[in-house]
What does this fold into?
Amino acid sequence: MQIGKELKKLRLELRLSQTEMVGDILTKSYYSKIERGLHEINAKDLIEILERNRVNISDFFQGIESKGKSKKYLEQLRNAYYEQNLSKIVEIRKICATDYQYRNVYAHALLLENFFKKNKLSCKEEAMIKKLILNIDEWGEDNLRLFAMAISLFDESEIEYELNMILRKYKEIDKASRKIQEILGGIMVNYLNIMFLKHDRNFEMISKLRNFLYKLPVEPRTIFCKVMADYYGYLFNEEKLEAKKILDFFERHGMESITTYIAF
It folds into this structure.
């Protein structure tokens, strides 16, 4: 329920407890269930809560509407990536460049554009994206995707701190949603690639990441991540002949666009 999520986000921004947020309008127990999407909130109570906290009602609903547009733009960006449609990526980046409410979409588009153009982000752009990620309160699908794309912008200590948090949070990865599983698998594969390119031989972290990938459910959508766990195992153990067999398999099956960016 989008309104509950938006109320929680607003409350955290205002640095209020649930009791402070609602006063005597609702019980803390009932309001807590609204934030968690277990109960609906009627229009009268919602307006009273917003007025109590001096929040413009129109701005609140405009924020919800912008979330819907953000989802649409992010879906278009994902399609453009798979279709290698750079012009669409640039179009969305330009649309979102000057509107703060689409900053997450803008960051996605900027990273994708520079990826395809093989350009380096400016210091200002890097700082903006890092700040956006480090200020994230809730790691939903879109924010995890952004982190997966921007992971190379962070230093090792920052990345490993976040990854250890993720590994603890998703210890039982088989219980996470399919999309979360896919995104987290991408993050782990991406960082293994970065570690190899940077000659980082932190074998404890390498083992954690590979074990995480092996714990993903055995399904067609996760097979790539599991194969990549084997691939980086071969690379870090200097078994390049075995690693090359995996790359050759990908190329024989028309996956050259992927193998171009895999370390060897």
Summary: The CA atoms of residues 69 and 102 lie 9 Å apart.
